């Protein structure tokens, strides 16, 4: 990480000829609770040691100058001319500025250089890391005194409105609220959250990246959201008090099954069961029972594959391969799905075997190597230097 920080800082100083504030903004993992956030359910994410580094300084005028170290590309605009860019990466920064302006916060232009080691589009929320980091930076530079929840909401709205992806709140929440060796159970309705210890020295969090990036992800994501909304509308005719799938249980679903489109029913059943799994999995964590916890990860994967239908052959292959290795507690696809990565909980001493076997199986079937990252649960977005 030292090298990364130095390289982003140097790039900033060379481009803009001044000293920046340096901020680390992490990618996230999610142990369990997938596609539950936008249904006002539960999730169990944490921030990681994979970060986006932002070097940033305020300006006296309204100009904004951005430099992406990873793409070696520049972008310039000003506060009155924010609009989507062909380059795409500037939108994550512009989107956040746009939200701050819309909310009426007093900001000026900024110079930014950024780069990182969160796999881009790989299911660890590199975009939320840029947005959360930018929201945190603007708050700090312009002394706005906003709390983390407000910053979380601003970052999410940037993605929803400027970038145009209807994501839930989990990614930005974990990015800004993460703590070392802890995961967060977030109630995505009330936004109350609790930290759960995750500090077993003998266990590693292993992320296996398929390398597959599918455009389908965002269109299908929106379709899933609509299907959940459709299920809620149908059940509301019988249970007017229901506001989201959070309020639904399996008995309600069973009682009205015949009125449902079968696909919509299956989607809703997945969400209801996944919420139950998150609640139970938190108890497993408290007991230190990773065996039972891991089984819920496999069940979550099966649900995402068969009921929610957001997995892919590559993701299934990685999970099946992981499940055959002694010392693996659990494994499942992570994030929106279709491409991206899996998360596995692996005994520290089995990590080398995991890398070897999973890579070999993946290579045999696809002809390609997966990228395997062992990640640590770390603090959320923070200032490194000012
Ligand atoms: C993406 C979204 C999140 C969440 C997950 C699925 O990462 O950004 O809000 O919905 O997919 O759990």
Number of strands: 13
Q: State the strand order across the main sheet.
A: 5-4-6-3-1-13
CATH architecture of the largest domain: 2-Layer Sandwich
Distance between the termini: 17 Å
* Number of individual domains: 2
Task: Kindly identify the CATH topology of the largest domain.
Answer: Ribosomal Protein S5, domain 2
Which percent bin holds the helix content?
A: 40-55%
Structural class: alpha+beta
In N-to-C order, the SSE pattern is: HEEEEEHEHHHEEEHHHHHEEHEE
Unreliable segments of 5+ consecutive residues: none
For the biggest sheet, the summary is: 6 strands, mixed
CATH class of the largest domain: Alpha Beta
Mean pLDDT rating = 96
Give the overall shape, derived from the CA principal axes: globular
Number of helical segments with 4 or more residues:
11
Q: Which ligands, by name, code or SMILES, are bound? A: alpha-D-galactopyranose
Strand content: 15-25%
